[in-house]
Every structure is written in structure tokens, then in C-alpha cells.
Amino acid sequence: MLHDRASLSSECADAVLSACEDAGICSSDGAVDLVISREGVGNALDEIMSKRERGEEYVEKKKDVLETLMRSRYANLYSLLKDNLSEESYLGIVRNQILVDVQGEDLLFQIFTCNVLQREAGDEAPFLEFIQRVCSECSAGPDGCPLPVKPGCGGFGIRNFLTLFLSIEVSKAMRECSLAKSTGGDDDDDGSAALSLSRRKVELFTSQLNESNPILTAISDAMTAEGRAETNMNA
Known about the structure:
This protein has 235 residues and is mainly alpha-helical. The chain has 3 domains: 74 residues, no CATH class; 59 residues, no CATH class; 78 residues. The chain contains 9 helices and 3 strands; from the N terminus they run αααααααβββαα. Strands 1-2-3 form a 3-stranded antiparallel sheet, sandwiched between helices. A hairpin with a 2-residue loop joins β1 and β2. α2 packs across α3 and α8 packs antiparallel against α9. The model has no long low-confidence stretch (mean pLDDT 82). This is 4-hydroxyphenylpyruvate dioxygenase.
């Protein structure tokens, strides 16, 4: 991410990531701490990178590095919602593990319970899903007033079932990566292979998340446009 989004060389990106781990800014699997400040990250990296190679490149790209690190805490969400939410709102969503989708100008927040009414571990069991739709307040009506809320409020997010399962796999792969590192993944062939495999899993599942988003967005937008066209036709 640092290499691509902050336009760093691979060597500098690796050095910054290592510095982040040393400073406790991120975990060994690259997950950035939610409770950090831009100023604190900058000060910590300034001190460490001043003593390492590629320090000059870091200084030159510092603004982009900090922006990338801070946004990495909610990168997938931001790719979907852009600047429609504040950083505080993004962090609240991540902290509370809420799935988010968008339909038209509406946001959908979804949470799931663990299995309920389950007699034995491993048995099939239902779970509960709670959805909150934050409806559009854009002035899109012919009279300049907000559009009325539809009965039933238009369904729920088409993206989130795929996103849910891919996110679970990404989290699982990141835990495997941390475990491989903590058990000396670079010290022997078996450990190195496990570390390499877990990193590849993270890359693949993250790539699937990124590639599926625009496709599912197009489907969702088409469904929204169809509903609006039908409403206008019947008006």
C-alpha cells in the first residue's frame, strides 16, 4: 500500500513499515492501530527514519506516507464511500465492526449476531442481522425537497454478503501471518513457507475485495436507477 499509494520505492516502503512495527503503530501483519494521531505517527517515524536508510525519501514523501497510514485503517470503506463520511465516523464503523453498503445516496449499516438456538458447536443454526438505513437527504425532488422514504426503504446491501465472507478470510489470513512471524517464520524453510503463504492469502483476498467492489457498485446503481425510473414512469 505504501509503495503504490505513497509512491515510495519498495525499499523505502519496507523501511517505513518496519519502523511502524518498531514504534507500535502497526502490528506484525500490517494492521494499523486505530488509536493513533497523525502528529504522533509523524513524530515517531521522524525519529526512527532519521537513523535508517531511505530517510531522505521518507522526508520527501512524508505527507503522503502519513495520509496512507491513517487512511489504511479504513481503506476498503473509503474506496466505497470516499469523502462522504468523516474520519471519526469511519473509525467508529471499524471499531464497532459494522458492515457498510451504499445504495444511491443512502448508507446501510449492518451487524450480525453469533449463532443463536444452537444445541451443539458445529450444528447449523440461525443468526440475527440488524440493518439501519440512513436515508438520503439530497434535494432531488422536483420541488427541491428531499425525496420521500419508500415503504420498506428499498432493501439491503447487495455487496455485504460477499464482503462479509471475504473480510473474514482476510482477517483469518492476517492472523496466520502474525502467528507465522511470531513463531520465527523467517528462520526455517517451513516457517518461511507458512509466512509466504499467509501473506499471499492476504493479498489475494484483499484483491478480490477491491475487484468486486466496482462490479457490485454497478449492479447496485443499476437497481437504484431502475427503481427511480419506475417511480418517475408511474408518477
